[in-house]
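#help-structures
NK: newbie question, is this the right format to request a structure? protein is ABC transporter ATP-binding protein
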Amino acid sequence: MTTTAPPPPLLSAQGLHVTFPGRHGAPAARAVDGVELDIRAGEIVALVGESGCGKTTLARSLLGLVTPAAGRITFAGKPLEYSSRALKAYRRRVQLVLQDPTGSLNPRHTVYDAVAEGLRIHGRTGNERAAVAEALAHAGLRPPERFFLRYPHELSGGQRQRVVIAGALVLEPELIVADEPVASLDASVRGEILALLLRLRTELGLSALVVTHDLGLAWNIADRVAVMYLGRIVETGEVEQVLTAPRHPYTQALLSVLPEAQGDPVVLTGEPPDPSRIPTGCRFHARCQVLASGEAERAGVADRCRTEDLEVLDGGGGDQVACHWARAPGRPGD
């Protein structure tokens, strides 16, 4: 019997490291510290974690906005090049959607000009009016002509976010990177924007990387989830598997504070460590509730948690976890 190999990834990060110089002779901050991540055509991947874990820096590096210190990014099988011409061509195919539509839109520009801006920057010829109208319609602003001459202050927050999305769609990208796409919106319109992103995947075949701190959002929109902590992905897999049976204590803690969670919330002690001083052993061990409770000791892995680093997880999409305790003999999923 023959098996069908999975399709190659559309976007792939391989051994990615991004560092920022320290101040006054301090060690460099390892914002992204060895990441493997694949996104396939038509797939939505959620990248989740606390503020400061490195997820936005990773997203910016995938967009070519930050040059990695090591590793490489490939798109459609070809390595990303960092010349101005190559990056301009790349950004026609990979577009960014930011979390703050008010800050993303020039208050002096009409909706039409805001959406047409990408076409003009990239010198796209053809019927500009038709392209703008089509993008607005895909973003759910219908009839589009009714919005052409409006200004951002005349729109609701949800409408402004749809204009930002239309500005990305007008270049007909293959992938969008959405950084906290509903964080600044009222709860009443968040569901509408998430439904829009899912519809765009169905209608246009778009892939998406959705960067968020909200695991509930990941559950509603993603095919796969990658949980990031201190510059590295610590758990990844199909969204149902990771969010219904999380194996990493950090993922368990993030899930425990959702309104629908069963049991008491896990309160993590302290703040995430400084990325210029990543601890030895598991990078989560200083805040780990499993180590603090003695469960890791009973499983015989406490010393390894404190002293033995874990390998970088493969980006290919299988269910994986970087945790000595989760992998201890006899534990589910071992």
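mod (FA): yep, format's fine, and the tokens are attached above. The chain has a mean pLDDT of 92.
NK: thank you!
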